[in-house]
Amino acid sequence: MRLWGKCPAEAIILGASPGTALYVGGGADGSEIHGISLSGGDTGVFVVDSAGILLQRVWLHDQLGMGVWIWGPAAGVVLRRALVERATYNGILAQGASIEVEESVVRACFGQLRQLRDQLASQFPQADWGLLSMGMSGDFELAIAEGANLLRL
What is the mean pLDDT of residues 35-49? Predict the structure, then answer.
């Protein structure tokens, strides 16, 4: 699959909830997505068991779940010169898969999670809200800056 947009500000795919704005799966090895914006939905891009996927100059924003979700041992994604912002749960989630993040920005996801934790802590003060687990090897500095105190590296 090859999907090319002129500019992410001009080529926008709107996702519905529940649902995924763009699904890449089942042997779509070598697929490339360039110059588009994916907005809304539960997940911006969901990659399942497909290797060599390139997401370049892609903007992912305002997802209710994940910006990029990669699943399966055969799955592999390169996220290059991309922007992932305002995903409610995870900007990027790789489950049993690999991802390379090059010259990309993931923001606001960790801040929103911290705000949710703080809101829940005020509503349920009897619970222990001391730990905030966010971030992994590729984004731990940003997670720490946003308040993480438990990391998976």
Answer: 93
Per-residue model confidence (pLDDT) at position 125: 93
Whole-number pLDDT of residue 108: 63
Q: How far apart are CA 1 and CA 23, in angstroms?
A: 11
Output the pLDDT for position 50. 94
Specify whether the CB–CB gap between 15 and 39 falls below 8 A: yes
Cα–Cα distance between 79 and 61 in angstroms, integer?
A: 15
The DSSP result for 14-37, as a single string, is: EEPSSSEEEEEESS-TT-EEES-E
Instruction: Work out the mean pLDDT of the chain and round it to a whole number.
Output: 88
Q: Strands of 41-140 (E only): list them.
A: 43-48, 53-56, 59-61, 66-71, 76-80, 83-85, 90-95, 98-102, 105-107
